[in-house]
Amino acid sequence: MALSIHQQICRSFLQRVGTSTCQFCQFSTSQTLHEVRKLMRMRIVDNSAIGKAAAQIGKPPKVIHVYNKRQVGFLGDKVLVTVKGEMKKAYIVGLRQKQLPNVPRMDTNNIVLVDDKGDPLGTRVMVPIPSALRGKAC
């Protein structure tokens, strides 16, 4: 498959400079962070109304706070996210990060929205939930 002139120029420029991004190509080839930190985009996997609306307009929720000491979220941790300009609490139910044995690794970082009491906003979760979360007091 032949490369276009633009792609050849970008590739040779990136090799000379030593960077992994090309502002003309609009993509990054650097490795992604698999841990959940502030300002990270997540995926809502329940059928809540606000989650469906955010998915339709293509604006995934953004983590603005992680409720633990290290400010890094792991499986089962509570986070504060913004969805369509509203602040909602959520639990992390799936991570791309390498997990312990017998804990599945997901393709995306998944959350389930909850209200202030801890009750889920949706009635159904669309992805499998790891059994490791059963023993955790969420």
TrEMBL record:
Keywords from the named record: Mitochondrion, Ribonucleoprotein, Ribosomal protein, Transit peptide
CDD domains cross-referenced by the UniProt entry: Ribosomal_uL14
Superkingdom field: Eukaryota
Pfam families reported for this sequence: Ribosomal_L14
SUPFAM superfamilies for the chain: Ribosomal protein L14 (SSF50193)
Localization in the cell: Mitochondrion
GO terms, biological process: translation
InterPro entries recorded: Ribosomal_uL14, Ribosomal_uL14_sf
Keyword Transit peptide annotated: yes
GO cellular component terms, semicolon-separated: mitochondrion; ribonucleoprotein complex; ribosome
Any GO molecular function: structural constituent of ribosome
PANTHER family named among the record's database cross-references: 39S RIBOSOMAL PROTEIN L14, MITOCHONDRIAL, LARGE RIBOSOMAL SUBUNIT PROTEIN UL14M
Family: Belongs to the universal ribosomal protein uL14 family.
Protein name as annotated: Large ribosomal subunit protein uL14m
Organism field: Biomphalaria pfeifferi
